Amino acid sequence: MIVDLIIKSLSQFRTRHTIAFLIFATSGLHTVSNAAFPDSHGIFYIRNFTNSHLIWQPLDQSAAVDLGSLGTTANRVKCSEEYVIVVHSGGFQTGSGSALWYATVIEVTQAIQLQRVIQWTTCTFPAFSNAYDVAIVGDTAWVTLLGSSQIAGVRLSTNQQFATVNTASYPQDVLLANRQLYVSGSGFGSGRYVARHNPITGLLIDSIAVGTNPQGLCVYDENIYVACSGTSWTQPPIAGNCTIIHPTGLTTSIIHPTITAHPFSITATTSGRIVLIDSNEPRVFQIEQTQPGDYRLIVPAAVVADWNVVATVQDSLVVSSLQLDVLNVFDSDWNPGQSYSTSGNAAAMEFWQGRNNTVSEQRSHVPNNTVLQTVYPNPFNSSTNILLRLPHSESGTLTIFDRSGREIQRNVVHGNGSGNTRITIRLNDKASGTYFAQWIGKGSQETIPLELVK
């Protein structure tokens, strides 16, 4: 009976890839209405590339918190349930000082409360490696090394680098999706491939041909979207595009018919809005799918110049402006909302759901029906979190099954009045594979898959 239920649920299910911890491709956990963000949510961003500080900006109009100096050349910030990581690229030519800085979420939470400097753990890389981006898989960080055309694997709990693996030429962004690592190979303007790796061993699986100079990556509904910036400095310039890598491995390229686009940053909202930033003439594009398999790029009417990086919270956008030194919020119709001063150019952003911080509470209305919101992270290494949105009086059971329908664990859940309840699922002693989380409450029933990767 359970197996039939799981099969029936999967036939109606379109896989959710809502991951709360992605830079440039961040999908939040809550609907944002008129740019009013829920409690304990905010943005980490790196202020200035040459004199870097890590800043925590609550999205409830509270003042930003400076978490201390990072030194120079901080390039990316990413988060998981356990860690906050900053990637330092090192010197522009030599890569001197190329390193991974990371701290536990608990320490960062305390830093937010006490507004003190975080004591970072560092893992350094050789000169000329130029660390660029990072993907977190449980206790492992996979770092793209732009200068050496490799990815490096680091065990965060022991601060040990355990692997270096060849990848696409001059790798930039790395994305964990569909139980694989995707690495964009920019080739310093001449690359045309995205490499796929095993997320546990780093083993290279294959390379997929895309547009010229692939950089930004994001995922929605199992499709991987690649921002290929082309080249603006060659004569004649090579136009960029957005290449879609479908689950089958086939690709689709999209380019605006009337302009030469050079998109370098890309993100996906939970409703499937794919947003790109043009690096040549600062503009933002949005991908529309007019019918299955038919895509086009559009330029939203409310676009302002000189946007730098973009993150998404549910279906709203948070973008930084180089000229104005602000973070701007736009809703799903591109209407402007809140604006936050950055006191310096934001070089990178990461949406984060803080824990136990001092952000003042702003609850939206409590939902009137039960919804299994999201799983993060997913895939996961040993533990993951399931977020439920529950009415105050709602209660029910959240049960985990394996693929054969065998019950693994059962949790009795009660609404806590806030509308949001988080359940941590630990499968430390289980084998890799697909599991299922089934919610049964009063008048509601829902099943979603979990991907355990060890």
Output the number of helix runs: 2
Question: Average pLDDT, to the nearest integer?
Answer: 78
Give me the secondary-structure category.
mainly beta
Major beta sheet, strand line-up = 3-2-1-28
Q: For the record, give the distance between the C-alpha atoms at the N and C termini, rounded to a whole number.
A: 29 Å
- Principal-axes shape call: globular
Question: What key phrases describe this protein's structure?
Answer:
35 strands, mainly beta, 2 helices, four-stranded antiparallel beta sheet, disordered N terminus, 454 residues, globular
What does this structure look like?
With 454 residues, the protein is mostly beta strands. It is built from 2 helices and 35 strands. The strands form 9 sheets. A 4-stranded antiparallel beta sheet has the order 3-2-1-28, with helices on one face. A 4-stranded antiparallel beta sheet has the order 4-5-6-7. The protein has a 4-stranded antiparallel beta sheet with strand order 8-9-10-11, with no helix packed on it. The N terminus is likely disordered.
Secondary-structure map with pairings?
Elements: H1 2-11, E1 41-47, E2 52-58, E3 65-71, E4 74-79, E5 83-88, E6 99-104, H2 105-114, E7 121-124, E8 131-137, E9 140-145, E10 150-155, E11 160-166, E12 171-177, E13 180-185, E14 193-197, E15 204-209, E16 214-220, E17 223-228, E18 241-245, E19 251-254, E20 263-268, E21 274-278, E22 284-291, E23 294-298, E24 307-313, E25 316-321, E26 326-330, E27 336-341, E28 346-353, E29 371-376, E30 383-389, E31 395-401, E32 407-414, E33 420-426, E34 433-441, E35 444-452
Antiparallel strand pairs: 1-2, 1-28, 2-3, 4-5, 5-6, 6-7, 8-9, 9-10, 10-11, 12-13, 13-14, 14-15, 16-17, 17-18, 18-19, 20-21, 21-22, 22-23, 24-25, 25-26, 26-27, 29-30, 30-33, 31-32, 31-34, 34-35
